[in-house]
Design brief:
425 residues, 13 helices, four-stranded mixed β-sheet, alpha/beta, single chain
């Protein structure tokens, strides 16, 4: 867990009467944006990326890639700081392994606690020159770019699908290509399908099966792309619509067909009291006024949805059993422990049993205004904020971490006129 700095800013959120309404433009998917930026860097050619994500992670990756390009070939180690961005750390680990130069890839304190050993081991088997500078299996990493060689590897993708995506994206640069076999079931498999689809869009062949990937040597040929809006961010509007109970929210640009696995949120929330109406311009979220008594679901393929879904179940008094979630321990925070601790303040019981969370309603909320820690985790902030609609008023620590994925979150919240945000608490 991240140590809480009591000097972190805090927002006081208070629900205001009236129907929850609004029309919002959520920027492009962070996951798609970051993959396309890496592929363009590998190609050495840029093409127009319309609706590129404004997330802090995407800005950091873009700035890092520019700095790397400017300093390529230097014999003086260049420090590249991924800060708290998991995709930046994982994708650059593989990218720098094939980029001429000497690099020190690091991150913030929490990033240095997040494992990267499975990715580094695979790269080393391909001939990469990577050393740990502090703790084995964790950043910081000293990387000297070199030419890799073809191989047929086995790896464990059960900690992060980003390890696999990182290898997939550099595979066309490896003479003879790459074959990966999975020793365990991959988590977040839709993200691997997303990576494969984007590679094909850029002209690179990729054969993806449930237990292996085959990628021949090839050349990326970037083309202009319109990046679809981010379903992971939309999840928190579904949560607000469900908890508020009288909502009509329009989200521009979303379509029924999507590269993002998190598109499943539209189907999931039918059971939590939100209907999705697809139009030519986007989607409308409508509160239905009814929800299931319990939710049992496997989140192996879309772990980023767990905070929004679990917080919704807690607020609605639903029982829930969410499985396939063990790897949530390795996110920006230990999300299993964080959700368990914070949601217990609402009176629910959250038990962690190996690879599942079990939520039981029935208790009473803590007395007074609920004050939530967020562990410097953007998805914790955005999943706890809507609870103000259920408990009328809440205090939320470190609210600006939303910039990591959804910088417009607080602006959009205030535009509804149904949640007062006091930034001076």
């Amino acid at each position: 867990m991240v140590t809480i700095d009591m000097k972190d800013p805090m927002y006081r959120l208070k629900a205001l009467p009236g129907r929850l309404e609004g029309s919002f433009h959520i920027r492009g998917s962070k996951s798609i944006s970051n993959r396309l930026l890496i592929m363009q860097a590998l190609a050495g050619v840029k093409a127009t990326l319309k609706n590129l994500s404004t997330a802090k992670d995407t800005r950091r990756l873009s700035e890092s890639l520019k700095m790397i390009s400017d300093c390529s070939g230097s014999r003086i180690p260049l420090v590249v700081n991924a800060d708290d961005a998991g995709t930046v750390m994982r994708f650059l680990t593989a990218y720098l392994a094939v980029r001429e130069g000497l690099w020190l890839l690091t991150g913030n304190e929490r990033m240095q606690e997040r494992p990267v050993g499975e990715l580094v081991k695979a790269l080393q088997m391909l001939g990469a020159d990577i050393d740990y500078t502090f703790q084995h299996g964790f950043p910081p990493l000293k990387i000297e770019g070199t030419s890799l060689h073809s191989a047929e590897l086995e790896m464990d993708p059960s900690v992060s699908s980003q390890f696999v995506s990182a290898l997939m994206m550099i595979a066309p640069r490896i003479p003879g290509g790459l074959v990966l076999h999975f020793s365990q079931k991959p988590v977040s498999f839709p993200y691997l399908k997303m990576t494969a689809s984007l590679m094909k869009l850029y002209g690179v062949s990729c054969s993806l099966a449930t237990n292996s990937i085959t990628i021949p040597e090839g050349i990326y040929k970037p083309v202009p792309v319109g990046i679809e809006p981010d379903w992971s961010s939309a999840a928190f509007w579904y949560e607000m619509a469900a908890i508020h109970g009288d909502a009509s929210i329009f989200l521009k640009g979303f379509e029924k067909e999507s590269l993002q696995g998190d598109r499943v949120i539209a189907d999931l929330f039918l059971r939590l009291g939100v209907e999705t109406r697809f139009t030519d311009e986007g989607i409308r979220l409508l509160s239905t006024g009814s929800h299931a008594d319990r939710l049992d679901h496997d989140f192996s393929d879309y772990p980023d949805l767990v905070p929004a879904v679990l917080a919704t179940c807690a607020a609605l008094g639903m029982k829930a059993r969410l499985s396939g979630i063990a790897h949530l321990r390795f996110k920006e925070s230990d999300r299993l422990a964080a959700l368990q601790h914070e949601l217990s303040k609402t009176g629910v019981s959250v038990q962690i049993d190996k690879d599942q969370l079990i939520l039981e309603p029935g208790g009473k909320p803590a007395k007074g205004i609920l004050e939530f820690e967020t562990y410097k985790d953007h998805r914790m902030v955005m999943s706890l904020a809507p609870l103000a609609f259920q408990y009328n008023e809440v205090l939320l620590r470190d609210p600006l971490t939303v910039n990591k994925s959804y910088p417009e979150f607080w602006l959009h919240i205030q535009q509804t006129g149904r949640l007062a945000v006091d930034k001076n608490s």
